[in-house]
């Protein structure tokens, strides 16, 4: 009898094939698929197997490059360097590629996911946002290790790599945080707002009081007011610093412009802003619909809904529903929409929500998606309901990582 196949620790010489979703490329070795990080398509690398579930595939990390691809560069961050083997930081995936190559890799992934999961063939261009590859991240969460040092996790690991700085985080956001000790096991949630005010919340599990009960989370504000001020869509915004706001400083403004252009709500029209957060897109839709229009914002976070109500108090045509999209759409008392905008979390909208949106019969649907696989699945669901994908823009709102933001427009066939 043969034991379980386990190549962990083995070093393999690999001809690296195409990029795959998730920040790695695909190679093959002795009939098995190897998902290899820190390589680029077309390279020949030596890679160390980091994790082997014993099935048809394993995961590896390039430790030496024999034939570098044209787009390869030296990573600007020491925690992304080759010599560190699989102790590299898991926060970035493409530090070893230049900007144009990163955007081309992401475009390939979006194209492939749309084709494979959405059944749609289309060219995709991933556009750059202003500001370059470094110092763009305005929100970051640091974990604290056993001896109190804050840091980031390696890929697929709970270990903590202590950091002094992170070159993709905006300048100054980590100042005075990484050179002191924090309670072991806690987390630091950091937000740097439009005024460069840094807000830091320390998050800790309270001691367990009753066996079997999950311990409560205790949040302690350690820096800043906790109210972030942001600018986008020609407006000033105030929101809870640990609530959702786009992480790239140019993203909120860019996405609001694209969503507005794709939505084109008629004057006096009705729009739904599902997963509306603090109201970024609802503000744009409300301006288009005008005072005689009707915009309904649906958001599950009570705190975000309160922030939305305060931020949009000059737009009485917006009404607010605090609850999950699933619950609110089930209650079918929403006005019939001309346009629906949805901006779901990573898992996408899913069958239930797509069917409920389409049943309401909007002329147009605008879908903002941070995961191309989830978007691909939703594209197929919209197609089942007779809604065709007719516009798609993609943005590199997360340079150095594999993440990419897509905004897709559907209309009824
Ligand atoms: C990606 S954010 C988008 C926020 C907003 N559209 C923006 O651009 O700032 C997703 C939002 O959906 C909310 N959310 C998550 N799951 C939800 C659900 N099932 N129903 C309603 N809102 C949900 C989150 O609280 C978050 O505010």
What does this 3D model show about the protein?
With 413 residues, the chain is an alpha/beta fold. Helix 1 (99-118) packs parallel to helix 7 and helix 2 (251-263) runs parallel beside helix 3 (280-289). The protein has 7 helices and 22 strands. 46% of the residues are buried. The chain has helices spanning 99-118, 251-263, 280-289, 302-311, 325-330, 350-359, 372-384, and strands at 11-15, 19-20, 24-29, 32-37, 44-51, 57-67, 126-128, 139-144, 150-152, 161-162, 187-192, 198-205, 217-223, 227-232, 235-240, 270-274, 294-299, 318-322, 339-342, 364-369, 387-396, 405-412. The strands form 4 sheets. It has an 8-stranded mixed beta sheet, sandwiched between helices. It folds into 3 domains: 11-69, OB fold (Dihydrolipoamide Acetyltransferase, E2P) (Beta Barrel); 110-130 and 249-412, Rossmann fold (3-Layer(aba) Sandwich), CATH 3.40.50.150; 139-229. S-adenosylmethionine is lined by residues 244, 275-277, 280-281, 298-301, 304, 324-326, 343, 345.
Map the helices and strands:
Blueprint: E1 11-15, E2 19-20, E3 24-29, E4 32-37, E5 44-51, E6 57-67, H1 99-118, E7 126-128, E8 139-144, E9 150-152, E10 161-162, E11 187-192, E12 198-205, E13 217-223, E14 227-232, E15 235-240, H2 251-263, E16 270-274, H3 280-289, E17 294-299, H4 302-311, E18 318-322, H5 325-330, E19 339-342, H6 350-359, E20 364-369, H7 372-384, E21 387-396, E22 405-412
Parallel strand pairs: 4-6, 7-21, 16-17, 16-19, 17-18, 19-20
Antiparallel strand pairs: 1-5, 2-3, 3-4, 5-6, 8-9, 8-11, 9-10, 11-12, 12-13, 14-15, 20-22, 21-22
Helix pairs in contact: 1-7, 2-3, 6-7
